[in-house]
Design goal:
117 residues; alpha+beta; Alpha-Beta Plaits; 4 strands; globular; DUF1428 family protein; Dimeric_a/b-barrel; DUF1428
Length: 117
C-alpha cells in the first residue's frame, strides 16, 4: 500500500501568488525524486466550525486562505528515501526570502492508507 504525507496551512491572500509559485516549483521536484502524486488545493468550501475545522486548526486569520496538500509515495520506505532528497535539492531552497506562509501554524504528518480504491 502507498504512503501519504498530508499538510494543512494558512496562506495570506496577499501572498497566494508567491505560494503558488513555491508549490509549482516543489511539485516537480518531489515527483522527480520518486513521489507518485503531488497535490495542492486552495480552500473553497471550508467553513469555520464552532469547535474545530480546517481554519481553526491552522488559526487562519480573516485575510488568509486554507491550503490542503498531500504527497503520495509507493510506501513509507519510499517516502523516507524521497524526503531527504527533496530537502537537499538546491532547487527547493531558492532565495525566496521569507516563506509566503507561517510555517509554525502548518499541520503535517505521514499517513498509512487503509482503504485505496
Amino acid at each position: 500500500m502507498s504512503y501519504v504525507d498530508g499538510f494543512v496551512l494558512a496562506v495570506p491572500k496577499a501572498s497566494l501568488d508567491d505560494y503558488k509559485r513555491l508549490a509549482n516549483l516543489a511539485g516537480p521536484i518531489w515527483m522527480e525524486h520518486g513521489a507518485l502524486a503531488y497535490v495542492e488545493c486552495i480552500g473553497d468550501d471550508v467553513p469555520n466550525g464552532e469547535v474545530t475545522s480546517f481554519p481553526r486548526a491552522v488559526q487562519a486569520k480573516d485575510d488568509e486562505i486554507v491550503v490542503f496538500a498531500w504527497v503520495v509515495y509507493e510506501s513509507r520506505e519510499s517516502r523516507d528515501t524521497v524526503m531527504p532528497k527533496v530537502m537537499a535539492d538546491p532547487r527547493f531552497t531558492p532565495d525566496w526570502g521569507p516563506m509566503p506562509f507561517d510555517m509554525k501554524r502548518m499541520i503535517y504528518g505521514g499517513f498509512q492508507p487503509f482503504v485505496e480504491l
